[in-house]
Amino acid sequence: MSGPEGSIVQFDNVGLRYGTDREVLSDISFTLFPGSFYFLTGASGAGKTSLLRLLYLAQRPSRGMIRMFGSDVITLPRKGLPAFRRRIGTVFQDFRLVPHLSAFDNVALPLRVSRVPEGEIRKPVADMLDWVGLGNRADARPATLSGGEQQRVAIARAVIARPEILVADEPTGNVDHDMGLKLLRLFEALNRLGTTVVVATHDVHLLKKVPESLIMRLDKGRLSDPTGALRYPPRRPGRVEGVLG
Amino acid sequence: MALAQVIRRNQPRFGGERSGLLQQARLGGPMPWVIAIMVTLTVMAAAAGLALSNLARNASAEISGGVTVQIVEAAPLERNRQAEVALALLSNRDDVAQVRRVPDSELEGLIEPWLGEAAGTGDEAIPIPALIDARLRGAVTEGRLEALRAQLTASVPSAKVDAQAGWLAPVFQAIASLQWLAIGLVLLLAATSAAAVWLAARSALGSNRETIEIVHLLGGTDRQIAQIFQRSIAVDAVVGGIVGLLLGLIALGLLGRQFAALGSGMVAGGGLDIVDWAAIGAIPLAGVVIAMLTARVTVLAALRRML
To answer: Which of A176, A28, A92 minimizes the C-alpha distance to B218?
Structure first.
């Protein structure tokens, strides 16, 4: 089964349950298109992180169909997953930095995983750390960084290899307002370069900052579609103001 | 700085020559010492096995074709007469390569430690059989032995003919058992080393689980993660192997000096040749290979249980 023409991600009637508990996600169907910017909103416990875990291939759904980059990832053999994961940049809610690696080495990790030669790693990683304002903390271990600094390292790591999809779980939750805006500009810039961006947030003020974004709202594990994000092709520019009322 | 300059426009190249991924991850701890002890014990067991093999081969070659003729006759004159007849008969046979009568002085020397200096001389001397040491061409079969017995006993009624290999058969059996014991010890030590690496790898997997999950989510493959552990255990195994080999060689040197001091001809046949030393030198290499393979299999098996 092929997805809508030009789509990069397609979820069709996806459900997710952990063990024998009730479903945390039910009947999730949507399509993401290349170069679009999506916000995923919803109250705490609505299932945002679970949905993102499906998006960055940390989890297989209990039912339904997921296509990414034109392939069915449900039936994809396990050994085929790494190649797909390398095309996805992820900012985890809890950062998930490797504790015994420096900020530099954490940011370099996706490039090393992709076997980029060492000589081609130093400059882009140093530039990226400069850009997120941590050029002088390159040798610092995560434990010595503040929450906001760790978050910026996590974001730098997610975007360093220029992923086709960027998935960010509450990426501005631990940074001040100015840094939050700066990071959002980074996501927008990435988006303009062609990266599909999905940002999960419960900060309604953030949604206003990206006028062209589309919004998917999760409520008790089910999606609603306040801006037409679930329709295709997506309507651009978005309807953020209207949604927020 | 413009973002376009910051972000790499091109897809990263795969298959680069070096991955610095998690280079700090080490199995560490006592692993090099465990491997060192295992290699030391393996070197000693292997050396013992090889020495026994050489000893058996040399001794076997030495007595191959050997036949002992005893003239068991109490009267000295008759004993001498029969011994001379037997010697002449054996000398005339085409299939006898060498023959000699063991001098009485040599026989007295052999029994002296048990019976004293005067046991074989004087009026009250204990009668000692005359001994003839013959070497046949080719192996001594039961058929050839019977034919020789038949010829000798026709003219030398007191002659008793035995193959020398027959006397030493229990010794060779014991040596063969010891060889199997050495082989068994080497295999057990290899299995124990593998088990130690297996435990260490599982423990390291457990303590690095979070990191492994992150690497997986960033697109790391099982093989990449397994290589990290392989590299780590390889470093430990090389260090442990070198230390273990040195300790083993020191132990062998000390044991060699002790055995050399025995001055026994049979023990001298148990020396190690260049091929044996090369085999012993290869033990640490085998240890490194076993350790790396064990780590790889263990890690890959554990990773297969993760998404």
So the answer is: A92
